[in-house]
Design goal:
This protein has 134 residues and is of the alpha/beta class. It has a single domain, classed as 5'-nuclease (Rossmann fold), CATH 3.40.50. Helix content is 57%, strand content 13%. It has a 5-stranded parallel β-sheet with strand order 3-2-1-4-5. Helix 3 links the parallel strand 2 and strand 3. Helix 1 packs parallel to helix 3 and helix 4 packs across helix 5. The longest helix has 27 residues. The two termini are 24 Å apart. 34% of the residues are buried.
């Protein structure tokens, strides 16, 4: 089964009906029904913080109850955390976030080659992104 990493940008787009990419995100998610969707706890924390601020409690409960149960949350160990910190520090002053650097390290560690993301930093890192053309 194909493993696909799910980024914060995809989760936010799925929840934001006013986002011009919302319908594409929903279609993409439906097309991933046979894939194993994975993310890590830092993406969950980042997503919950942003969703609560942008969409309130209803958005947070939708994320918690309707979206996250379909996604395996894999752990970030100390080795990955430390490598991501080093990668983040080395990338400054670029705009690549610490959470994205953790994502890149997790994907490398677990040999995950594709991400469901609307974040250009994934493309810049050489990661195959779906939906294509984001």
């Amino acid at each position: 089964m194909k493993r696909v990493f799910v980024d914060t940008s995809a989760l936010l787009t799925l929840l934001d009906r006013s986002d011009s990419r919302h319908d594409a995100a929903r279609v993409c998610l439906q097309g991933l029904a046979d894939a194993e969707l994975v993310t890590h706890g830092y993406v969950v924390a980042e997503s919950l913080a942003v969703v609560r601020r942008r969409f309130g409690v209803d958005g947070a409960t939708t994320l918690l109850d309707d979206i996250l149960p379909a996604i395996e949350v894999i752990p970030v160990d100390a080795v990955v955390h430390t490598a991501a910190l080093a990668r983040y520090r080395a990338s400054l002053p670029s705009g690549t976030s610490f959470v994205d650097n953790v994502s890149f390290e997790v994907m490398a560690r677990d040999a995950i080659e594709m991400a469901f993301a609307f974040d250009a930093d994934f493309i810049s890192a050489g990661i195959a992104v779906i939906p294509v053309g984001t």
